[in-house]
Amino acid sequence: PSVDELRGNLDLLIGRKPPLVQQIDRGPGQREDRYAHLLCGPVQMPLAAAPLQSPSPATDLEARVQALEEEVERLRARIDALAGEGR
Fold this sequence. Notes:
The chain is mostly helical. It contains 2 helices and 2 strands. The chain has 2 domains: 1-42, no CATH class; 54-87.
């Protein structure tokens, strides 16, 4: 059978009451549609794993700036405490 015939048959199975087939969303990197049978009940689809992304340079820079600001705040508090001891 051709791809068009196969899709036509799947559409018939999807259109039945109750449906016998369910179309599944394409995952990352998948070219073709996916289908699952419903003969044993509803299909529990695993959550698609999100593609791993390395932090962008801007995000990395923001984290570094935040850490430096916190360190400066701690050092200022320490200097203020030491200056108060000398009085």
